[in-house]
Specification:
Largest sheet: 13 strands, mixed
CATH superfamily of the largest domain: Gcn5-related N-acetyltransferase (GNAT)
Radius of gyration: 22 Å
CATH topology of the largest domain: Aminopeptidase
Structural class: alpha+beta
CATH class of the largest domain: Alpha Beta
Number of domains: 2
Distance between the termini: 58 Å
Shape: elongated
Amino acid sequence: MALGVGRRESARPAADEVRVLRPDQIPQLRLGWQHRHEADEIERLLAIYPGRSVWLPDTREFVLLSPWRHRLEIAGVVELAAVRNAELLVSHAVERARAHDAALVLITELDERRRPAFYDRIGFTELEEVITYETDRVAPRVVDTRPLTFLQVAGHDSAMLNEVLALDHIAFPWLWWNSSEELAAYSFMPGVGIFVGLYEGKPVSYVGLTIYPGWGHLDRLAVHPSFQGLGYGRISLAFALGTLSSRGARRVGLSTQDDNGRSQRMYERFGFKRSRVNDYRLYGRWMRDPETLG
């Protein structure tokens, strides 16, 4: 009997054994302390993003997909609970995402860390490396923001949030765009502040920040391309640090892209130092030509 079980476990499942995961099948998954999602969270994901997540009934391995940053066109792999059949499951999840018109299937090392060779085998390429900075040189300061005037944006101010969203989309590449749903959800998170820098009444920059007990995080800093090179990025950063300091932060962290040397130089001039422990990579498989996006 033991030999029979061994042969069955070593057999490779056929591709047609992979199934779309339904809510009524969640109790059959092999969930435990090592898994990232509880049953109720999986049920919620299946409700908001149906038809993408898949599983193998024989082994109870599964892969969960979710809209990345509330963007339906980017299918994020948020959990890959598989060892022997990870490649098979991901290939089926990719096809399910393609069938639902996704532009990109994305895996970040925040959700799933595997060796680079694994991503090569499943046809994913490295899209970005996100690097992190920190500073503990956050002293109370009076910031001269001229010629900009900063206005805090309330979560219920849909008109101003739309202005922020338009600025966001023109300042950042397609991959890093906020969606309207993401921005609205972000605006109501505890400790979050969104501030728009106005020049002659026109939004030309914005910062998003979060204050935690004793420290803060600069979540976003954008300057309209037509106003770059005028020092508005430095003014916006100084304003953000001054605001975080006034709210009790004594240490501040942020992240940026590894290939964004311009922002790195600005942060370093303000005393930020690299904090490599929190760096991560994004791997993706394009469903559409990225040149046609954005």
